[in-house]
Amino acid sequence: MDLILQYFPNLTEKQIEQFAKLQTLYAEWNDKINVISRKDMDHFYERHVLHSLGIAKVMQFQPGTKVLDIGTGGGFPGIPLAILFPDTHFHLVDSIGKKITVVKDVAKQLKLSNVEAQQARAESLVRKYDFVVSRAVTRFTNFFPWVKGKFKKEDFNEFQNGMFLLKGGDVDEEMEERNVGYVSYHLDDYFQGEFFETKKVVYVPWEGKR
Asked: What residues does S-adenosyl-L-methionine bind to (predicted)?
């Protein structure tokens, strides 16, 4: 938890309390179903919470922004981002029902009224969003068709509507499989530690002509 305060020192008392509860909630669920790998639970705040918040070092969502988290698993990056941006609406989807059960319970326990969790495949959704976020779900060439038609036309954030993807390793080779513009932000510019040396936030603006 100290890690979170180190990099996000301006949290409210409520946010500090919510972040502090996360590990206990996930540890309890992990005893029932394998939401997070056992070895990762020992580094929970670094590898899951802080990693998710890497998007917040690049982008500050404005109040009223609507964000879709595709393949959220147990709620990452959506849950940490929802704590940090209480006035932004987060729609967390995953095709695996038991993971969404965990997300719904965590959101309820933390009283996150800005989180909606749904068992669904991304391509079946018809709503439109300002941004899509995701963490290491699949290669971008597979991910790309899922987001088609998901973006609102009007922009009101600092960044043009689009995607913020948490990825590791050589993202250039992967991203260039599709003819898109993108910008990579290296997380080791924002966070210390070996874990972040190869981690990046990849921003892909959505251009309506595609």
From this structure: 71, 76, 122-123, 135
154 known member of a binding site: no
Answer whether the bond into residue 77 is a cis peptide, omega within 30°: yes
**Would the annotation count 76 as a binding residue?**
yes
122 is in an annotated binding site: yes
Domains and CATH numbers, the chain: 1-166 (3.40.50.150)
Residue 117 has which token pair? 């969790």
135-159 pLDDT, tens per residue? 988 999 999 999 999 999 999 999 9
**Does the global pTM surpass 0.70?**
yes
Residue/partner pairs of 125-129 with CB below 8 Å, 24 or more apart: 125/68, 125/93, 125/150, 127/66, 127/68, 127/91, 128/66, 128/152, 129/66, 129/67, 129/68, 129/91, 129/161
